[in-house]
Amino acid sequence: MRGAQGDPADDLGTPRIVLVATLVLAVAAVGTGLGIAATRRAPSGPVAIPAVPAPQAESPECRALIATLPERLGDFRRVDTVQPTPPGTAAWRAEGNPVILRCGLERPAEFVVGSPIQQVDQVQWFRLDDADTGRSTWVCVDRPVYLALTLPTGSGPAPIQTLSAVIDRSMPAIPIRPGPPR
Questions:
Q1: Which of these CATH numbers, 1.10.1670, 1.10.3470, 1.10.405, 3.40.1000, describes 60-170?
Q2: pLDDT of 44
Protein backbone atom coordinates (compact mmCIF):
# COMPACT_ATOMS: atom_id res chain seq x y z
CA MET A 1 0.00 0.00 0.00
CA ARG A 2 1.59 3.30 -1.12
CA GLY A 3 1.56 6.25 1.16
CA ALA A 4 1.36 4.23 4.34
CA GLN A 5 3.23 5.61 7.27
CA GLY A 6 6.81 4.34 7.36
CA ASP A 7 6.85 3.45 3.65
CA PRO A 8 10.45 4.08 2.41
CA ALA A 9 9.21 4.96 -1.11
CA ASP A 10 7.29 7.95 0.30
CA ASP A 11 10.35 9.22 2.21
CA LEU A 12 12.58 9.17 -0.90
CA GLY A 13 10.02 10.16 -3.55
CA THR A 14 9.49 13.78 -2.61
CA PRO A 15 13.20 14.70 -2.25
CA ARG A 16 14.01 13.02 -5.59
CA ILE A 17 11.31 15.01 -7.35
CA VAL A 18 12.61 18.26 -5.83
CA LEU A 19 16.20 17.33 -6.75
CA VAL A 20 15.28 16.44 -10.35
CA ALA A 21 13.20 19.62 -10.75
CA THR A 22 16.03 21.75 -9.34
CA LEU A 23 18.54 20.10 -11.66
CA VAL A 24 16.30 20.63 -14.71
CA LEU A 25 15.82 24.31 -13.81
CA ALA A 26 19.55 24.81 -13.28
CA VAL A 27 20.40 23.27 -16.66
CA ALA A 28 17.74 25.42 -18.34
CA ALA A 29 19.07 28.58 -16.67
CA VAL A 30 22.66 27.85 -17.73
CA GLY A 31 21.50 27.07 -21.28
CA THR A 32 19.53 30.31 -21.46
CA GLY A 33 22.48 32.31 -20.12
CA LEU A 34 24.86 30.78 -22.66
CA GLY A 35 22.37 31.43 -25.45
CA ILE A 36 22.06 35.09 -24.51
CA ALA A 37 25.84 35.47 -24.21
CA ALA A 38 26.37 33.88 -27.62
CA THR A 39 23.95 36.27 -29.31
CA ARG A 40 25.32 39.44 -27.63
CA ARG A 41 28.03 40.30 -30.08
CA ALA A 42 29.46 43.61 -31.13
CA PRO A 43 27.82 45.09 -34.20
CA SER A 44 29.46 43.56 -37.22
CA GLY A 45 30.97 45.28 -40.18
CA PRO A 46 33.77 47.77 -40.53
CA VAL A 47 33.76 51.19 -38.88
CA ALA A 48 33.80 54.31 -41.07
CA ILE A 49 36.37 56.88 -39.96
CA PRO A 50 35.85 60.23 -41.70
CA ALA A 51 39.00 61.98 -42.88
CA VAL A 52 40.10 65.11 -40.99
CA PRO A 53 43.26 67.19 -41.40
CA ALA A 54 46.09 65.14 -39.94
CA PRO A 55 49.34 66.46 -41.43
CA GLN A 56 51.54 64.09 -39.41
CA ALA A 57 49.41 60.95 -39.71
CA GLU A 58 52.11 59.21 -41.72
CA SER A 59 54.97 60.37 -39.50
CA PRO A 60 57.37 57.80 -38.02
CA GLU A 61 55.77 58.42 -34.59
CA CYS A 62 52.26 57.63 -35.83
CA ARG A 63 53.38 54.60 -37.86
CA ALA A 64 55.20 53.21 -34.81
CA LEU A 65 52.18 53.79 -32.57
CA ILE A 66 49.67 52.23 -34.98
CA ALA A 67 51.93 49.16 -35.30
CA THR A 68 51.85 48.58 -31.53
CA LEU A 69 48.13 49.12 -30.83
CA PRO A 70 46.44 46.36 -28.83
CA GLU A 71 43.58 44.19 -30.03
CA ARG A 72 41.54 45.05 -26.93
CA LEU A 73 40.82 48.16 -24.91
CA GLY A 74 38.91 46.70 -21.97
CA ASP A 75 35.61 45.47 -23.45
CA PHE A 76 36.37 47.03 -26.85
CA ARG A 77 37.86 44.87 -29.63
CA ARG A 78 39.83 46.15 -32.59
CA VAL A 79 37.69 46.22 -35.73
CA ASP A 80 38.24 46.68 -39.44
CA THR A 81 37.62 50.09 -40.93
CA VAL A 82 35.89 51.12 -44.14
CA GLN A 83 38.40 51.60 -46.95
CA PRO A 84 40.01 53.91 -47.70
CA THR A 85 40.92 54.34 -44.06
CA PRO A 86 42.60 57.64 -43.22
CA PRO A 87 46.25 57.07 -42.27
CA GLY A 88 47.09 57.07 -38.57
CA THR A 89 43.67 55.81 -37.43
CA ALA A 90 42.27 52.75 -35.68
CA ALA A 91 38.93 51.69 -34.20
CA TRP A 92 37.63 49.38 -31.49
CA ARG A 93 34.03 48.45 -30.72
CA ALA A 94 32.10 46.66 -27.97
CA GLU A 95 28.47 47.57 -28.57
CA GLY A 96 27.14 50.63 -30.31
CA ASN A 97 29.51 53.50 -31.02
CA PRO A 98 33.21 52.73 -31.54
CA VAL A 99 36.33 54.06 -29.87
CA ILE A 100 38.36 55.88 -32.54
CA LEU A 101 42.03 56.84 -32.39
CA ARG A 102 43.57 59.41 -34.73
CA CYS A 103 47.27 60.19 -34.80
CA GLY A 104 49.07 63.19 -36.32
CA LEU A 105 46.36 65.82 -35.95
CA GLU A 106 46.82 69.56 -35.77
CA ARG A 107 46.67 71.19 -32.34
CA PRO A 108 42.99 71.75 -31.45
CA ALA A 109 42.00 75.42 -31.58
CA GLU A 110 40.40 75.02 -28.13
CA PHE A 111 43.73 73.96 -26.57
CA VAL A 112 45.09 77.29 -25.31
CA VAL A 113 47.17 78.52 -22.39
CA GLY A 114 45.19 77.82 -19.23
CA SER A 115 43.20 74.90 -20.67
CA PRO A 116 42.56 72.16 -18.11
CA ILE A 117 44.77 69.11 -18.58
CA GLN A 118 44.12 65.66 -17.14
CA GLN A 119 46.89 63.16 -16.62
CA VAL A 120 46.20 59.48 -17.18
CA ASP A 121 49.18 57.47 -16.05
CA GLN A 122 52.14 59.26 -17.68
CA VAL A 123 50.18 60.96 -20.50
CA GLN A 124 48.58 64.42 -20.47
CA TRP A 125 45.17 64.80 -22.14
CA PHE A 126 42.94 67.73 -23.08
CA ARG A 127 39.23 66.84 -23.13
CA LEU A 128 36.66 68.05 -25.65
CA ASP A 129 33.01 67.13 -25.07
CA ASP A 130 30.38 66.93 -27.80
CA ALA A 131 27.07 67.91 -26.19
CA ASP A 132 25.11 66.71 -29.24
CA THR A 133 26.40 63.12 -29.23
CA GLY A 134 27.50 62.72 -25.62
CA ARG A 135 30.88 61.52 -26.86
CA SER A 136 34.16 62.94 -25.64
CA THR A 137 37.43 63.34 -27.48
CA TRP A 138 40.62 63.28 -25.48
CA VAL A 139 43.62 64.89 -27.17
CA CYS A 140 47.09 63.74 -26.11
CA VAL A 141 49.05 66.99 -25.81
CA ASP A 142 52.48 66.01 -24.47
CA ARG A 143 53.94 63.96 -27.33
CA PRO A 144 55.71 64.93 -30.59
CA VAL A 145 52.41 64.52 -32.48
CA TYR A 146 48.84 65.20 -31.36
CA LEU A 147 46.58 62.17 -30.93
CA ALA A 148 42.82 62.15 -30.43
CA LEU A 149 40.86 59.37 -28.75
CA THR A 150 37.09 59.63 -29.24
CA LEU A 151 35.10 57.68 -26.67
CA PRO A 152 31.41 56.78 -26.60
CA THR A 153 29.34 57.57 -23.54
CA GLY A 154 29.82 54.96 -20.81
CA SER A 155 33.06 53.54 -22.21
CA GLY A 156 34.74 53.61 -18.81
CA PRO A 157 38.43 54.21 -18.11
CA ALA A 158 39.94 51.12 -19.80
CA PRO A 159 40.35 52.56 -23.33
CA ILE A 160 42.22 55.70 -22.26
CA GLN A 161 44.26 53.89 -19.61
CA THR A 162 45.33 51.16 -22.01
CA LEU A 163 46.22 53.61 -24.77
CA SER A 164 48.05 55.90 -22.33
CA ALA A 165 50.38 53.01 -21.51
CA VAL A 166 50.93 52.25 -25.22
CA ILE A 167 51.57 55.93 -26.02
CA ASP A 168 54.00 56.27 -23.12
CA ARG A 169 56.00 53.27 -24.37
CA SER A 170 55.88 54.42 -28.03
CA MET A 171 56.63 58.14 -27.86
CA PRO A 172 58.71 60.36 -25.62
CA ALA A 173 56.95 62.99 -23.54
CA ILE A 174 57.61 66.63 -24.44
CA PRO A 175 56.41 69.91 -22.89
CA ILE A 176 52.85 70.82 -23.84
CA ARG A 177 52.40 73.44 -26.59
CA PRO A 178 49.06 75.22 -26.08
CA GLY A 179 47.98 78.05 -28.33
CA PRO A 180 47.85 81.65 -27.11
CA PRO A 181 44.96 82.58 -24.81
CA ARG A 182 41.86 83.88 -26.52
A1: 3.40.1000
A2: 73
Beta bridge partners of 61: none
Question: Could you tell me the pTM of the whole model?
Answer: 0.76
Cβ-proximal residues to 32 (8 Å cutoff; 6+ apart), any chain: none
3-state SS record for the chain: CCCCCCCHHHHHHHHHHHHHHHHHHHHHHHHHHHHHHHHCCCCCCCECCCCCCCCCCCCHHHHHHHHCCCCEECCEEEECECCCCCCCEEEEECCCCCEEEEEEECCCCCCECCCCCEEECCEEEEEEECCCCCCEEEEECCCCCEEEEEECCCCCCHHHHHHHHHHHHHCCCCCCCCECCC
DSSP strand E in 52-98: where?
72-73, 76-79, 89-93
